[in-house]
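Sequence in, structure out.
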Amino acid sequence: DRAALLLRRAVELFEACGSQYGIASTYNNLADLLRKDGDPQGAEAGFRQALTTFRRVGSPDAVIPLLNLAILLTERDEHAPAREHLRAGLRLADQSGNGILSGFAHALSLPSAAALQSWGRWSDHVAGARTLTAAGVFDPDVAAALQRAGIEAARRERWTEAKEVLALSRAHWQGLGRQWEVDRVQKALDAIG
């Protein structure tokens, strides 16, 4: 794919000029593209390379590949390792003082919390996720994570938890203009009652 080729070329150019930040950022973008194109192994390698490079230069942007790794692991139902990346990502996001980044980390934490039946911080994660919709920040990865969290909560007969995150997922899909996804989430909400 042309985009992947261009990103690989960008890594080479950043390496040639010695921009470690550029290398890390481009690896993260390439890995995200690979994840969306269905190459989870390539994506994981890219996210790990980005994380290593960001950490080596001491960049607070290490939180971004941490969260992306967590998304990938959650998609593979590897919830325990995803939770560890999310905890580290949440700490970094909170330290940065970036409320939007914290909101992402909280929202992305919900599927693993439900799958592992870790309800202790559920309300904190939901409150963090709500900051995104309140700020008008809508993201397909967040929408999908909230939807996944709702399904996991419903599997465990946690109906209240399932409804609240499915409603948030619906709001994200609406904000993104994806009516077919809104309809799918609404069907899940209707099934819960």
